[in-house]
Amino acid sequence: MDLSNNKGIFNAKGADIYFETQGKGENLLFIHAGIADRRMWDREFINMSKYFRTIRIDLPGYGLSDFTGGEYSYHEILNELLDYL
Prior knowledge:
21% of the residues lie in helices and 28% in strands. It has 85 residues and is of the alpha+beta class. Helix 1 links the parallel strand 3 and strand 4 (53-57). The N and C termini lie close together (10 Å).
């Protein structure tokens, strides 16, 4: 599977996380503010994908990601997703 331009749901421990990737090169991960979702990075996501593999996610309970109500850790979710990609 070509993960340079991809989107979908990643099954992390504690939550199902929606992600998008675009471009190639070193990873550049965009994490949204607590009152937004991945779309707050629309312009940067597209522009920076010319130079990097840009990645953006919806944190648990935001956008297209599930809020499971279970225990989860943001840093563990991010590490799992980057390992997957």
